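Reply to dn_fold:

You asked what the input looked like. This is it:
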Amino acid sequence: MRKSFIKRIIAASVLTTMLTASLGCAKKPVVDPINDNYRVFYEIFVGSFSDSDGDGTGDLKGIINRLDYLNDGDINSGESLGIQGIWLSPLFESPSYHKYDAKDYYKIDEKFGTEADLKELLDECHKRNVKVIIDLVLNHSSDENEWFKKFASAHQNKDTSNTFYDFYTYVTDGTMLPGHAYYQIPGCPGEYYEGNFSSDMPEMNYDSENVYKCMFEVAQHYLGLGVDGFRFDAVKYIYYNDADASVKFWKRLMADIKEIKPDAYCVGECWSGQGEILKYVEAMNCFDFQISQADGYVAMAVKGGDMSTYTNYIDTYQKQVQKANPDAMPVSFISNHDMDRMAGYMMLAKNWTQMAANLYILSPGSPFIYYGEEIGMKGTRGGANTDANRRLAMNWGDEDTVDDPLGATYDRNKQTNGTVKEQLEKENSLVKYYAQLISIRNKYPAIARGDYKSLKYDNAYFGGSLITYNDEKIGLFHNTKDEELVIDLTSTKSAEISFAKLVDSIGQGTASLEGNTLTIGPQTSVILK
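and this is what came back:
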């Protein structure tokens, strides 16, 4: 029987463990979530999250130990973060700390645990109605992978009949494509394999049907274990600089995955402009990179940009996604393991982090939170120019032994917003704000699933959307200014609207509705019906 972490604090008056950590929230959802893929996901960089065995590396059992912090199994309890999906960074055996170069796709890296541990995690998550997707890198493997060793051996022996001879992309002198990176095949002068990320990450050759078969079998294996889908890394690198060929590949793979698991949730990383992203949306959900990072639409709005620019983007992008693929949805985020953390550029002292969270979490589709974002963790490449500084150890503040990843140089004294332990003990902490925000999103199915229409107002700090879902219409409005605003809601020329009541608000102030006049506090978002 689970015990509420908050209740144990009251009973014992001390915080002794985070194993069943949970959050006390003022506002609770009143309905169970719809059992679909319109969920708030939480990205976990496995090696940096929680260490169960004291070796300094995060592992699968560590995640199991923290599940009640993420979702205690009762979406109405108000005592956990309330996430409904988890994205796990690569789990497979690999020579690197980040595991984006698989040595063996069928073996869980021993530092993370075993396949049995993964199965236990999946079972425990499913008991809580939490879906789990795993990171799957299909374009390249490690050069320590047995497949690559067999490929090199076949070339050394000039054995063109060998199954692995064309397993990886290779060229000869004079046939190299511009913009691609090549390295000599070991022991084969004049022959080169492609490695667009590095020499130890050779690119697989999907002109070979054997490669497709092998990698699809990997996907089948993990779906069979109970994985709910995949995050696909570097989707445009399947056929680098040939989007049409790559999209064709992903359409085929997604069709085959859906044959096995019709409700599989898959999302692709196409780190590119909107035009190219929408090409890949034809095959699957894709992360919306235009909304993320320090120069994205969210950050621009929070820092004083015209709110109608943001709401127009949400409206337009949702329609573009639906046109490209009626089964796809927008996938918003503010940062991930490849980016500087939000708290470093959104200024916690100005409450920009909370406002940014309002904008992207209260948006259509399935938003993704990066672990530690909810407590205001910082991390940047900095002068060391290493992504390890963006993937630092989760700041639990208890006896967890998880350590920073190999190569990290970030000064821990720069983590000034406190630990999970400290924030759980504070009434108005950032982590409790995130829990309340997610509970509000879960309460109104229209936020994730409805059709958005941007509503423009003369005040640049105020804007919102009319959201239609089935027979329901709600208004979602934001004030990004650090002062209270009084707005005549009928002053928009975007639509004929009238609201009867204010049903929820979250931010740095209060809100009220009298007739068509909305009084909305500073850096606050409201929901009207």
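Residues 1-22, 24-32 have pLDDT under 50 and may be disordered.
Hope that clears it up.
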